[in-house]
Amino acid sequence: MATLRLADRVALVTGGAKGIGFACAKRLAQEGVKVVIADVDVDRAKISVKELKELGCQATATKCDVSVKAEVDAAVATAVEFFGGLDIAVANAGIVKAVPFLDMSEQDFDDVIRVNLKGVFLTCQSAARQMVKQKSEGCTKGKSIITMSSVNGVMAIPTIAGYNASKGGVNNLTRCMSLSLAEYGIRVNAIGPGSIATDVLASVATDEEARQRLLSRTPLGRIGDPSEIGSVAAFLASDDSSYMTGQVLYVDGGRLALNYTVVPPKKS
């Protein structure tokens, strides 16, 4: 039997009930991690936990609005209560509101920044404080914080100004945290997905024009699978990336390298 890279470590995954968040939680669990899935949709989180337990993994669910400090602190406390500590945090929870810039309301902008940027700050700070506490108590396990950015942290789409701004903020917040937490042996890195097959891209399954538009800007000629983000999260959580911190890893099918469009393959 293969050795599990992350056996007996504990992770908190926000927004982990479905999509990229669940893919990260699942891959970590398959690597031996005990996982706390934190999500505003606690019923869906419980279903995801049930799926992990059926695979023989250890997991629990907790309700968490990442924009509320008390709920974030409670989610971290859940990891400590159920599994004895916290070694990995994946700050994945996020939302998007597509509105033309001139029509975007202050509330639209605030809602996205509150979840996508403030939520990452609260999650990472609370997790880091617990990790530092464990280090002071003699814990020697490697600690890793992973934030979820996007190619839209460096690229712009005019109808999602709040999202673009939030993910650019996540990139620099990640770098800042990596410097602040290096002395404690806590590594902080970000993942920047491109077009991934989540609910946000559900229309692509039935809209061939939308699919062609997405693939025209993706050199690898396909939409990514959430499991491919989960694999990168497991890498960043493991000692295989032990000399990496302050980085943003773009998992985008080559999109950021492209300065033109390509002809996508025809759907068979």
Structure notes:
The protein has 268 residues and is an alpha/beta fold. It has one domain: Rossmann fold (3-Layer(aba) Sandwich), CATH 3.40.50.720. 42% of the residues lie in helices and 14% in strands. The protein contains seven helices and seven strands, in the order E-H-E-H-E-H-E-H-E-H-E-H-H-E. A seven-stranded parallel β-sheet has the order 3-2-1-4-5-6-7, with helices on both faces. Helix 4 (106-136) links the parallel strand 4 and strand 5. Helix 1 crosses helix 7, helix 3 runs parallel beside helix 4 (106-136) and helix 4 (106-136) runs parallel beside helix 5 (161-181). The N and C termini lie far apart (39 Å). The relative contact order is 0.14.
Mean pLDDT: 94
> Which overall shape is indicated by the principal axes computed on the Cα atoms?
globular
Oligomer: single chain
Rg computed from alpha carbons, rounded to a whole number of angstroms:
18 Å
Flag low-confidence runs.
none
CATH topology: Rossmann fold
Strand content: 5-15%
What's the arrangement of strands in the largest beta sheet?
A: 3-2-1-4-5-6-7
Whole-number count of domains = 1
Broad structural category: alpha/beta
| SS element count, helices | 7
Q: Approximately how much helix is present in the residues? A: 40-55%
- CATH homologous superfamily name? NAD(P)-binding Rossmann-like Domain
CATH architecture: 3-Layer(aba) Sandwich
CATH C-level class is Alpha Beta
